[in-house]
Design a protein that fits this description.
With about 575 residues, the protein is α/β, with parallel strands linked by helices. Helices cover about 35% and strands about 15% of the residues. The protein is built from 16 helices and 20 strands.
Length: about 575
Amino acid sequence: MSGTEVALLRLATTVIGAAAKALLTPRPGAGLVPDPVRPIPRPAKPDRLAKVLAGRMADAFADLPEHERLAALTSVQDTFAAADEPDAGRLFALELDPERLRAELSAPAAGLSARAVNLYEDLLGHCCAHLVEQLTAHPSFAARAAVEQVRAAGRTRELVEDVRDRVGPRPDAADLDFERRYAEFVATANGRVELFGLTLGRSAGGWPLETAYISLSVSGYEVDGGHGPGQPVRASIGIEQALGEWDRLLLRGPAGSGKSTLVQWLALNAARQTFDGELADWNRCVPFVLRLRAFTALDALPAPADFLRAAGVPLHGSAPAGWADRLLQQGRALVLVDGVDEVPDRLRKRTERWLRDLIAAYPRARYVVTTRPSAVPETWLSGSGFEPHSLLAMSQEDVRAFIEHWHRAARSECRFLALCHPFVMESIGELPVCEQVTELELLRQTRYLSLEGLERWTSLRALSLYGVTHLRQLSRMPSLHNLERMHLMYMPNIDLELMAPLTRLRKLFLVAGDQQLDLTPLGGLTSLTALTLHGDEEPFDLAPLAPSEHMTIHLTHNTRVTGAELFPPERIVRLP
């Protein structure tokens, strides 16, 4: 017998011995291998496993030198010899998986070549599979398996009950169906926001909130050792952090600080289940948006069953009986109370009692209440566990971020855009390009804003300007010389020669102010067909424009002109 055959027999004896001690009446095993080595009805003999392993080596490792084969075989035998006895409990813990058993065993001995390691791994895998196969044929296996299944079922039941305790009982089908419909309504109703201080030539439908919204900062407290042990000092924190730390929040901020927009954002994300980070757990919540100004005429503030009706939700008649009550009891309700400052002074005590009663009846729900600082003190509702925070004014960086978000929201839909305030910008180039805007109006407050960068707005076809420097800059922007309509307003010392490059201009609205303008350069704009003049100081001289046969002059009320007799009557139109 060769050395390899001896090593194979020793390995097979070790593996079979680990399982064969208790085998009395062989039965069908788990079917893990197609060639089980146990004879029926007698227990397996080591030489049968040795024969299987020898065939494995002959098929895949015939070219491996014998000394390397012996080293690999010895390493596998040592691994099994060093391992604890693989009893049934251990195998059930491994879910009867030979691969998991193999992973538990030690690594091959040091010094094996790469090919010898491959042989080691191959033999170890086969030995683990045959070992599990042998142990599943033990007479006690079926009974032990039944016990393990019962125990596993018990553990599963305990886990399910634990999850149910934490998330509450499963709502019935009617609740789930209405919750879905209500979430769709809330997402639609709160998905858009008005941007005040902005003029847009479109219906007042607002802009996508998820695009325009920027995260706000609030005042908070941190423990700073520099102010004494454990002494809290006021600090600035993100609104998401504050909301994530407290289930009851009183947010105070002046008009325009973003309180109502924040309420919209919270309702929208709760309805869409799109919270992340610190607020990920809020995706379980169903939002109730309660704007207090809508309740001032009511004899009493609404109970949970009347939340939807009082808030003007058209679906209120379809809500299953007790639906809001169940959400509040389970801690899945997000109660958003907006505008304590909009409640008359005589009704604020009533509002406070209403909130305290809600919290007493439904302590597991989440509450966010907003107000102006002048309406209630910081300690208002502190006895009910509310944490007060003040919304902070936007920093310069926040303002820039707001402008970028606002443009991102607007440029996806708007065609007409009017900038009425330059914010902290020095140049139009600081704004992202609104590709779809075809008409831009720069109002009086922007007359010192540089137009550098506007040449990238190649979709523009109409432009309104207040600053004389704007026209000078425009004349040097060939990409904008395709403008078709322009408004020039109150530009002192304007030189209309600067309009010569605008060879496609069709309509011009000119507000002169208190100066007399020389209209001669406009005669060279052969595409200009409509000129509207406004001015109640110096008269306009129309004589230089008489040769322009296709131009119609529109005059606003009280606008005086000379040379009108040189035009056919139908080409001089007095506007009401």
